[in-house]
Amino acid sequence: MDFVSINKNAGIVNLVLSRGKVNAINEQVVEEVHSSLVDFESDPDTKAIVMTGRGKFFSFGFDIPEFLNYSRGKFTNFLTHFTNLYTYIFLYPKPIIAVLNGHTIAGGCMLALACDRRIMVSERAKISLNEIGFGASVFAGSTEILRFCVGNKNATDILYSGAMYTAEQAKALGMIDKVAPENELIREATKEASDLSEKPAAAFTSIKLLLRKSIAEGMRLKEKDSINEFVEIWYSNTTWENLKNIKIY
C-alpha cells in the first residue's frame, strides 16, 4: 500500500495515514483504509485498531485540488465510497480508536467521529467540520454520526460555525474523549484499545450494533440524496471559486 502503513503488536493494529504532509484523502486512501479494515475484521488475531496520521495532521480532509479535475459523475462515485467507509467504521465489529496526532479537518474529522473513541494531542492541533466556511455542505451520515457523538445542540453549533476547536474545546463538546500530550498519545490509545478489546468480543459487537445500527440504517436511507445535494453545492459558482483558492502544502 502507498498511503497506509500498518504495524501490529499484541493484537493491536496501528493503521497510519501516510499521504504527503497533510494526509489528504483521495480515492486511493479510501480504498487502502477500507481494504485494510476488511482484512483485519476477519483476522482472529486482531483485537482492536488504532488509526492515526503521520506528521502534524491526522488528515486535512479531501484532496480538494485533485478533485477539481473530477467530473461530477466521478466525484459522486468517490463520495459514495467515502461515505460507505465511514459507515463501515461506525459499525466495525472490533474497537477502533482514532488517535488525532494533529489537525483533523472536514473529511478527516468525519472518519475520526465514526470511531469508538478519539484521543487528541494537546499541542496546537485543531479539529473542525469547517465545510460551511468555504461554501460546502456535509452528508446525512456524517451529520447523524456527529449528533450521536455530541448531541443535536452541539452538532448544530459545530456545523453552523465551521469553527476550529482546540483539543480541550472539542472534549467539552464531545467531539473527542481524551486529551494527551504528544509523548503519551500512542500509549494512551493503546491502553484504550486494550481495555476495549479485553471485553468479551461477541458482547462488545452486539452492544455496539444496538447503539449504532438503527442510526446507520437511517443514514443509508438519506445518504444518496445528501451526496447529490453536496455535489450540486460543490459545483456551484460561488463554492467552486472558493475551492480553487484552497491549497495543500
Summed up, what is this model?
This protein is of the alpha/beta class and 249 residues long.
What do these coordinates show?
- The protein has a single domain (4-183), classed as 2-enoyl-CoA Hydratase, Chain A, domain 1.
- The strands form 2 sheets. A 6-stranded mixed sheet has the order 1-2-3-5-7-9, sandwiched between helices. It has a 3-stranded parallel sheet with strand order 4-6-8, with helices on one face.
- By secondary structure, it is of the alpha/beta class.
- It has helices spanning 27-41, 64-67, 72-90, 107-113, 140-150, 152-161, 167-173, 185-197, 201-234, 237-244, and strands at 4-9, 12-17, 48-53, 57-59, 96-100, 103-105, 117-121, 127-128, 178-180.
- The longest helix has 34 residues, at 201-234.
- The protein contains 10 helices and 9 strands.
- The model has no long low-confidence stretch (mean pLDDT 97).
Spell out the blueprint of helices and strands.
Elements lengths: L3 E6 L2 E6 L9 H15 L6 E6 L3 E3 L4 H4 L4 H19 L5 E5 L2 E3 L1 H7 L3 E5 L5 E2 L11 H11 L1 H10 L5 H7 L4 E3 L4 H13 L3 H34 L2 H8 L5
Parallel strand pairs: 2-3, 3-5, 4-6, 5-7, 6-8, 7-9
Antiparallel strand pairs: 1-2
